[in-house]
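User: Good morning. I'm curious how phosphoenolpyruvate would be positioned relative to this chain. Could you predict the structure with it bound?
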Amino acid sequence: MIIVMRPGASQEQVEAVQQRLAALGFAGHPIYGDHQVVIGAIGAKPLPDLEVLEELPGVERVVRVMHPFKLVSREVNPAGSVVMVGDVPVGGRQLAVIAGPCAVESEAQLMETVTAVRAAGANLLRGGAFKPRSSPYSFQGMGEEALKLLAAAREKTGLPVVTEVLAVRQVELVAQYADALQIGARNMQNFELLREVGRQSKPVLLKRGMSATIEEWLMAAEYIVNEGNQNVILVERGIRTFEPATRSTLDVSAVVVARGLTHLPILVDPSHAAGKWQWVSGLARAGVAAGADGLMVEVHPHPEQALSDGPQALTPPVFTELMRSLAPLAQAVGRSLPQRHPVAAAV
Ligand code: PEP
Ligand code: MN
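Assistant: Good morning! Here's the predicted structure, ligand included:
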């Protein structure tokens, strides 16, 4: 159940509603929007008479949420949420484009990539420091050294940094360097990790598990928000199907379906879905056409030398061409490409 406060309702009125909720057996989670406060109420079954709450001062209306996910459901913020990653808005009219290598491999590789993707119009930088690899013998990432290189790349270019956190014990460290923490597909239902990133304040990119239903994905987001961190961004990155041609099948339907179910921003990662660079741009455009709030794309200046996911990496010229091709498409769906970052001209 959700209690929507009137615009301008006072803090005392919000607290009074929370006290009443507590007395009824609910935990109240206030969510402070630009115009209104909405209180998500989790708990008591069966639901009490809603009129009792509707009569409290400052309350506009009470909405029952019939889904198992509550705090992330669309009803909480029908207009859709905008999550700030550093100074970049994700959600809203402007598309967000996160680009960079699968893994940080060296200062030269990272700087060459970030310079190129920023020039092409990306407004966020990605790069793995801790890599989830199928084989324990594969490159596992440069760890904290990579985090330092990412922070240095942000200093030079102004692009906020997104990087993956694999384990609870890494959260504090990664949060010191990154502007947003990525939870990878393999960890989407690592509930302790979800709780831990929910207890810190950096935004979280939650990738869809490769065998997760849309509802399971949204329930995973609910774990994070339930701990107090409302800044969650969903990423559709392809699911396992019977089709072996692509690495995963990009579930474009999930973008459309989840859009109706949740107020959280939704991005598409065409790189891990495709598995092959030749298919990445087409899937990226499909994601934008379906209404995604932006993209996450892997780019490497020398894919043949990449230590992970080389076959799906776009070279900077191909990424630049993709960005160009997105301009009319973005316009057709009522969006705009990322604003060029103010520091961009300087480097
Ligand atoms: C990645 O972004 O490099 C990654 C490992 O993605 P996923 O968790 O979607 O496989
Ligand atoms: Mn990768």
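The chain is about 35% helix and 20% strand. The pocket of manganese (II) ion (ligand 2) is lined by residues 102, 272, 298, 308-309 (CB under 6 Å).
Let me know if you'd like a different ligand tried.
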